Amino acid sequence: xxxxxxxxxxxxxxxxxxxxxxxxxxxxxxxxxxxxxxxxxxxxxxxxxxxxxxxxxxxxxxxxxxxxxxxxxxxxxxxxxxxxxxxxxxxxxxxxxxxxxxxxxxxxxxxxxxxxxxxxxxxxxxxxxxxxxxxxxxxxxxxxxxxxxxxxxxxxxxxxxxxxxxxxxxxxxxxxxxxxxxxxxxxxxxxxxxxxxxxxxxxxxxxxxxxxxxxxxxxxxxxxxxxxxxxxxxxxxxxxxxxxxxxxxxxxxxxxxxxxxxxxxxxxxxxxxxxxxxxxxxxxxxxxxxxxxxxxxxxxxxxxxxxxxxxxxxxxxxxxxxxxxxxxxxxxxxxxxxxxxxxxxxxxxxxxxxxxxxxxxxxxxxxxxxxxxxxxxxxxxxxxxxxxxxxxxxxx
Length: 396
Hints:
alpha/beta, Rossmann fold, 2 domains, eight-stranded mixed β-sheet, 13 helices, globular
């Protein structure tokens, strides 16, 4: 059978993966792309922001057999990608036409292996599913968040029908609901679109999530970055759910938009086993300067080695610009971005303090971490909280 496979001209398919230009979305989709490529299927990876494997302008590149297409336009080059609203508008303007042209050119190729046979759309981009559907292609939507969030999104029609929320997502009942058996009850303040400071923003977020859920339920498959045993009953939401996680890079590129600082691994090599506190809050967390200063004070008072990913997105500053860095000496290391899987798998790491992003959770569980901590930063006593939590975890 192997000889027939290698000598035949029958293609194993060509999958187009379209990722939202956010780190927590592109990284797991790149890891999935590597898994698809391993079985002999050709993969084209499309996103609207340059990966570190690509250049900073519109380009095509290749990463271990995966064709990478990064598209940028004048708006994104002139304004910071951190302005999410402008980036979203840019995606809506550019991506549909580019996706349509890419699929049409692919289908006209004389080489069968170049013709795209299926499309995987990141869930925030599921609204583009009609484009490949009209071309007769199978569609899978990738869900990069938790089972509970998926259950909430898919049950929006029932929540409206039961008068738990109105047509704009505003809670009508001050009570908790059970979305799935064995899933913790969800209060109105737990809703993904809960944004009490601005009802217009809350309504906008709700309708985006509602639209995403509508397109997901009509896809051929919903691919989820978790394993079946994590919550088996979630698969009862719809028969199209496929759990394919945890998605790990396993030494291959993780689809990063940031340049990873591998010097932190050399630094970790010099630290005692199970001694280092790893602090990383992802790519979309935002902090005030006071919050950063208080967290830094907690880390310093702790008196234990730590590795902190303090990238410029936290507060529009680079890691090297923090004034307290000079007081850390060799005990602490601050980097802009880190190869997280390698860090979590390093024997010197004792605990992980994170924003609890789903990809980080899957990575930490895969590395054997039983304790996963999320700091709530909208409080006034963060310095004391950081000191107590970090000290207890590092000593435990």
